[in-house]
Predict the 3D structure of the following.
Amino acid sequence: MTESSSDLARIAAALERLAPPPSASADPAAHPAYVWRDGALAAARAFAPLPLALLTGIDAQKAAVLENTRRLASGHAAHDVLLWGSRGMGKSALVKSVVGALRDEGADLALIEVAGDRIGTLPALFDAIANVPRAFAIFIDDLGFEDAGGADPRVLRSLLEGGAEARPANARLHVTSNRRHIVARAMEEQQSAINPRDVVDDRLALADRFGLNLGFHNCDQDTYLSMVGAYADRHGLALDAADALLWAQQRGSRSGRIAWQYAVELAGRAGKSLGGD
């Protein structure tokens, strides 16, 4: 070996020592929830979803997602799910709570959370779980594509269409988004398009591939108060409706998230802990 090749070999060996070893993947049959990270499954440190009964004001959405995910857990035909709409109305909490509720019923079902910027790695995830004898809810939270022409929307569309790398029968996507159509619709693009209808149709095409497509909307005053009341009853907190409404008014919104934050405030004032909820 020449001196130069010897130097190269030493450099290569040093780089190998510096490079982190590949992440070891957690057993896909052993845990209730995972995070898909760096091409491997990592067991979630804590999976303590809210009880379904505490998610109020979204009864129709709750029933639909529960029934669809129960079918998935039972090995029956099930839809991919898109939950879209107002922030803080329980979209993400619902996915987790449904998985928790079905596990409490005895279903062998797990949640796998995937970051929205890791859409391109989903085929590798599907390979890792395709032959595992349990069901998986693939959870992608707060998804929104700014560029309809980018790679990720096309990858997701292909996965949903049932192509060569489509999700296996034991997995279905559960996606939340603040947008109904996931991909932003730029007005200037529509105005400059030769056929504006084609632009709209292209943007609708991705959302239309979810068999279960459910909207979430800002709640009215009564629904907000019922949300706060459910948390207060569960944790033995004294509820002042006027104070609860003032809390929401100061934040410019009434939603499940604001109701939960008010419950946290009540518990703090009372010197109580909300525990795992």
Notes: The first strand starts at residue 33 and ends at 37. The longest helix spans residues 3-18.
